[in-house]
Structures are given as C-alpha cells and as structure tokens.
Amino acid sequence: MSKTNINIGKMKGDFSNVSVSGDGNIVGHKIRVGEQKITKLPPEYRRGMEQFTDNLTLKLTEYNVPQDEVTGVQKEVDDLTEEIDTIKSDKEIPASKKRMIGGKIEQLAERMARLLPSAAETVSLFTPLAPFSKLIGKSVEEMVNVIAGERHG
C-alpha cells in the first residue's frame, strides 16, 4: 500500500486508519499523574488518582476539549499530586495540608464543571476521589455537587 500525504486541516469528522506525523498534532488527550509521586501513596489514594485521571482523559476526549483547557487540567492534576505525594496515612496530615488538598480538588471541580455539560457528569467524574473525603475531613462528593450545582443550576 502506498503512502499519500493528505491535508486534513479543514476537514471535519472522524478518521480511521490515519497515521499522523510531525509537530503540533493532537490525537486524543491523556492526563497523566506522576507515577513516581503516587507510588508512595496508600493504595486507596493511589487507585483513586489513577481511576480519576483515566476518567478525566475519557471525558476530555469525549467532549473534544481544546488543548489549552487540557493543559490547564493537567496543571491542576499536577498541583493536586504535589500536595498528596507525601501522604503516608490519614492520621499524620496537618490541618493546613488537608485544606490545601481540599482546595486543589475544588479547583479541579470548578474547571471540570465549566467543561462538562452536566452536574451529574462532573460529580460522577470525581467518584474515584471518594477516599480523599476521609483525608480532608469533608465529602468530596458533596464539595463537587455544590460546585457543579452552582455551575449547572
């Protein structure tokens, strides 16, 4: 089979069997969490972050979120990861750290409530972070529900 270069810059729709090369091509979005940072986390937090970022990737791709927004989401995931990377158990977290982690989750929820079409989708996206409720001393689901409800009324 011979290879032919085709300019798809102004085309719309789905493409299959397309090989992409060069710079500036975006094929889907992948939100990554620093594996080295989360490997030290207790298992329920590590699994929650992995599932959350997988769900984020699916939603950002499903709704064709622009790359600049994806970059912002990635930065907020990185910020959250920075805050949680030293967690060894629930008992040794200072109150200030709990507030910082809760604040990072709220920032992500605000951004995602703006990007997703419904409050229900926003809330379900954050379900894997439920174990963090115990850590921060308040329900992640309730926090996200309030934020998404304000956005989607």
What is the topological layout?
Blueprint: H1 35-38, H2 43-62, H3 67-84, H4 95-115, H5 119-125, H6 132-136, H7 140-152
Helix pairs in contact: 3-4, 4-7, 5-7
Report the biggest beta sheet as strand number plus sense, adding barrel if it closes.
none
Order of helices and strands: HHHHHHH
Tally of individual helices: 7
Shape: globular
Mean pLDDT figure: 83
Please give the share of residues in helix: 55-70%
Low-confidence stretches: 12-27
Structural class: mainly alpha
Q: How many discrete structural domains?
A: 1
Distance between the termini: 54 Å
Number of strands: 0
Radius of gyration: 18 Å
Beta-strand percent range? under 5%
Descriptive notes:
The chain has 153 residues and is an all-alpha fold. The chain has one domain (35-152). Helices cover 58% and strands 0% of the residues. The N and C termini lie far apart (54 Å).
In brief:
The protein has one domain. Helices cover 58% and strands 0% of the residues.
